[in-house]
Amino acid sequence: MPVRWNSAYEMVNRFLEQQPAITASLLSPEVRKNVTDCSLTEPDISNAEDMVKALKPMLVATNVMCEEKRPTISIIAPLHAQLLADTTSTVKDSPLVRDIKCAIQNDLSKRYQSLEEKDLLYISSSLDPRFKSLLFLSPQEVQDTYAKLLSKAAALNKDEQSLGEQPQATVADLPHTPEDKEDCHSPSPKRRKSALVDLLGLTFNNNPSTQSESATYIAQKEIKQYQDVRCLPLTEDPLLWWKCQRNAYPLLSKLAQMYLCIPGTSVAAERVFSTAGDLINAQRSVLTPEHVDQLVFLKKKTWTCLSQVFRA
Fold first, then answer.
1. What is the pTM of this model?
2. What digits encode the pLDDT tens for the residues 50-64?
3. 20 to 30 A Cα–Cα from 133, which one of 15, 20, 50, 88?
4. What is the 3-state secondary structure (H, E, C) of the chain?
5. What are the pLDDT digits (tens) for 56-85?
6. Residue 184: CB partners within 8 Å, gap ≥ 6?
7. pLDDT computed for residue 174 by the predictor
8. 20-61: pLDDT as tens digits
9. Cα-flanking dihedrals φ and ψ of residue 194, to 5°?
């Protein structure tokens, strides 16, 4: 399959696994009678082993992106940077491995080069608690990415303030003692009716400069708090983490919903079409659309449940 990065690796790796059986088969007179040249030299075996080593990162990347559970767009930038690093030629590489790495480098280096694509991928990675340190970027790129994230969070906060929504409490504002918890249920002084609010509220609450500074300050405080938290392990689910932390980071959680909902690959959608193609044929052409949807759902759900059982 030319469009799949892992197919070449699996083909050559399977050949190396079955090499004794293949060699024995090639020695058979019946096979040699139909094939003019079927001898395998030592350089052929060495080249196959070198190909497996060179293509191993592509296999891992394909398996990661083919998962249906967490293949969000946030993983593309760190994965792309890691593949570029793994396919960098070294002095110890053989000429064949060097050629393979060079071909991969030339192809990957052309991808995601526009400013819009970089902004989308970098901001998505910064909103993923697994990759928020952005170790695959330079310090200047990290600073620029979080500056753009700050502007987006401040703009979101400003829009909420203009709509009259009350900003939610951050971790630093949450109560930490029983007394604070009791006070939390009492009306906040900011929400009480005040003569000063009636007199000067329209003037000072609607001051554009005051709103802008307040929105930027709140967003900056939330981002700083988010950066100080330890990175989430790579085995954890970032979407579940944001679900649990949405009250602690109200602005960033909304941005995470906007960015992390973007799938990083079309594999899941293609699998659904493949499943539908297996279910619908000429003999089943009278199926109604409702029944087709139910059959596709049942097949996908059954396969998911069986996979979980086998893993367990």
1. 0.70
2. 889 888 888 888 888
3. 88
4. CCCCHHHHHHHHHHHHHCHHHHHHHHCCHHHHHHCCCCCCCHHHHHHHHHHHHHHHHHHHHHHHHCCCCCCEHHHHHHHHHHHHHHCCCCCCCCHHHHHHHHHHHHHHCCCCCCHHHHHHHHHHHHCCCCCCCCCCCCHHHHHHHHHHHHHHHHHHHHHHHHCCCCCCCCHHHCCCCHHHHHHHCCCCHHHCCCHHHHHHHHHHCCCHHHHHHHHHHHHHHHHHHHHHCCCCCCCCCHHHHHHHHCCCCHHHHHHHHHHHCCECCCHHHHHHHHHHHHHCCHHHCCCCHHHHHHHHHHHHHHHHHHHHHHHC
5. 888 888 888 877 566 688 999 999 999 999
6. 175
7. 41
8. 888 777 777 776 666 666 667 788 888 889 889 888 888 888
9. -135, 140
Q: Hey, where are the domains in the chain?
A: 5-117, 131-260, 267-311
